[in-house]
Amino acid sequence: MAADYELTPAASLDLTTLDELLRSRARVVLSAEARQRLEAGHHYLRQRLERDPDTAVYGINTGFGALCGQAIPAEQRQQLQQNLLMSHACGTGAEVPAELVRLMLLLKAQSLCYGHSGVQVATVQRLLDFYNRGMLPVVYEQGSLGASGDLAPLAHLCLPLLALGEVNYEGYRLAAADALSLFSWEPIVLGAKEGLALLNGTQFMLAYAVHALLRARRLAAAADVIGALSLEGFDGLREPFDERLHRLRPHPGQLLVAERLRGLLAGSELQQQPKTAVQDPYSLRCMPQVHGASRDALEYVTRTTEIECNAVTDNPTIFPEDDAILSGGNFHGQPLALGLDMLAIAVAELGSISQQRTAQLIGGQRGLPPFLVAAPGLNSGLMIPQYAAAGLVSQNKQLCTPASVDSLVSSNGQEDHVSMGANAATKALRVVINVEQLLGIELLNAAQALEFRRPGRSSAPLEALVAAFREKVPFVAHDRILYPDLAAAADFVRTYAWE
C-alpha cells in the first residue's frame, strides 16, 4: 500500500508527482497547514460578511455574470450557491474519461487548499473522499468556454457533493444521493461563495493538459527510438547526428535528440556497412531538428501547466491577512489554451514526420521490397497501414487549428473575451491518441524493414525493442488481417519503457 500523500500549500505539484499519484493510487489527505489555511479563509469570510453586510461582494451577496448588479439578501445566499451549481450543469457530448475526472478532483482540491477561496474544510475533504474512493462524478466534455472557469464541467464535477447529479462507482452509474448513502455521507451544505469557488477555475482544461503532457512526453521519447529503428531499416546514415553539427545550432531539444540518436545507433553493425547513399530524406536526416523543436515546445507547455497546478484560479479571491476580497480574472484559461494548442501542434509534428518515414520504408528503395513484403503483387504487405497513417496526419492538421485565437461573447457582454481552452484541451488529447497510433504504424514498418537487413544486426537497444515488439506483433510474411496488429502497436507505444 502506497503511503498517504499530503496535499499542502507548502509543496508544489509537478507532473512527476501527479504521474506517481495516479499510478500508485495513493490516498491523498489534507495537511495540517492546508486545514489551517482553509479554516482561516472560511472564518474570515464569515466575519467579513457579518461586519459589512451591505457591501456588495461579487458572487457572495450578488448575482453572477451579467446579473452581478442584483443584490441577494442573507437568507437566500445558501440557495444562491446551490442554484449556481444546478443552473451551470449544462455539459454535453461524450463523458470525460475516468482518469481525467480523478485528476479534476485532485486539482480542484489543490487549488482550494491555499485558503484564498473561503471554502470549508469539509468541502475540500469531500472532493478528496471522492478521489480516494474512486467515486467519479459524471462530467461531459463540451460546455466550457475556458473563461470564468470551466463552469459547466466543474458544475457536473461538484454537483454530487450536494447529492445531486450522477457518479460512476465500481462499474456502476449511480445517482449521487444513492452513492453518498453507501458511506453514510451527508450532502455538503454550501456556505457563502462556495458554489462559485467550486465552479470558477481551470481544472477541466488543466486535467487534460496534465494527462496529454504525460502521454506526449512519452511520445517524444518513443519518436527518437522508433525513428532510429526506421533509419536502420532504411539503411540510413548516422552522420547527420554528429555532435559538431548541433553545437552550431544549440537548441536544447535538438542537442538532446541528436545525442539520443547517437547513443541508439552506437554499436550497430548496420552502421559499419558501406553506404551507397550520400544523403537521407529529411524525415530521417532532420530528426534532431524536428523532434527537438517539439521537445522544446513541450517544455514550455510543461512550465505553464505546472504553474497552473499550483495556482488559485477562482474569483473573487480572499486575502484574510490583508482584510481584502479582490475580484479579478485568474479563472481565464488563456495560458492553458495557448499551451494546449502548442502541445497539439508539437505532437502532431512528431506524427507527421513519422508518417513520412513510414512512406519512405514502403517505397521499394535501398534494397527493400515494395510495401515490405517478400512477394509483392500477390501480397499487398504494408501498403494500407500507410493510408491509415496519412488519414490520421490529415485529421491532426484539422485538429491543430488553434482554439485559443477564437472568442465569443457570453453573459450579455460581461464575459466578452474567452479562451476556448476547453476545446483546445479535448483536441490536444485527440492528437496525442492519433500520434500514438502513427508511431505504432511506423514501428510496425521499421521492425519489418529491419528483417530484410539480416543477418546484419542493429544496436543492442534497438534489437531489444524489436524483440519486445515481436512478442506483440509477429513478422508479416504474407497478407493477414492487420487491424489487430495496428491496435497492438499503438498499445505498445503507450506502454513500452522508452527512456
Cα Rg: 26 Å
Multimer state: single chain
- Treating each run of at least 4 consecutive H or I residues as one helix, how many helices? 19
- Give the tally of β-strands: 9
Which sequence of strands runs across the widest sheet?
Answer: 4-6-7
Quote the average pLDDT. 94
The main β sheet shows up as: 3 strands, antiparallel
How would you describe this structure to a colleague?
This protein is mostly helical and 499 residues long. 54% of the residues lie in helices and 6% in strands. It has 19 helices and 9 strands. The chain has helices at 15-24, 32-51, 77-88, 98-112, 121-133, 151-158, 176-181, 194-199, 203-233, 243-247, 252-265, 269-272, 282-285, 287-309, 334-361, 383-399, 421-451, 460-470, 483-495; strands at 5-7, 28-30, 92-95, 136-137, 140-142, 166-169, 172-175, 317-319, 324-326. The strands form 4 sheets. A 3-stranded antiparallel beta sheet has the order 4-6-7. The chain has a two-stranded parallel ribbon with strand order 1-2. Strands 3-5 form a two-stranded antiparallel ribbon. α14 runs antiparallel to α15 (334-361) and α16 (383-399) packs antiparallel against α17 (421-451). The longest helix is centred in the middle third of the chain and has 31 residues, at 203-233. It is elongated.
